[in-house]
Amino acid sequence: MADNTRNKLTTTIYGREYIIVGVETIDHLRHVARLVDEKMHEIGSQNRSLDSGRLAVLTAVNATHDYLKLEEKYQELEKELARLKGRE
What we know:
By secondary structure, the chain is α+β, with helices and mostly antiparallel strands. The chain contains two helices and two strands.
């Protein structure tokens, strides 16, 4: 049976406090929050005129882009692995 214990983390992202709840470890939740905060600061430093809403959307767009690129790479590797296994 899976452990569905919910963990709760209070953290600050881009100067605002958030409560993040999830089944992942506190360390994982903290890591995710830190990455989002870092990406928002990175994008914000390059686009100082953005309000926080637009900055959050650009951060989400960047994160989704990165995710899709990784997913594509994963699919390529899965196909390569299947091809190599077929040669055995």
